[in-house]
Amino acid sequence: MAKSFACRDIGMSCDFTARAGSEEELMKKIASHAKKAHNMRQIDPATMEKVKEAITDE
Q: Which domain, by its residues, includes 42?
């Protein structure tokens, strides 16, 4: 089952969305986006929790 994520789902003013076949694959895409678009070298634990809660199954 595919997984998806949208920055808007965690309150960000950002149109980024991503889909992947697994949560691990999706987290790689999210981390890359966070680094490039939001200048986040590392995702802090509170944000990581929000991200994981916002991931949905398709």
A: 3-57
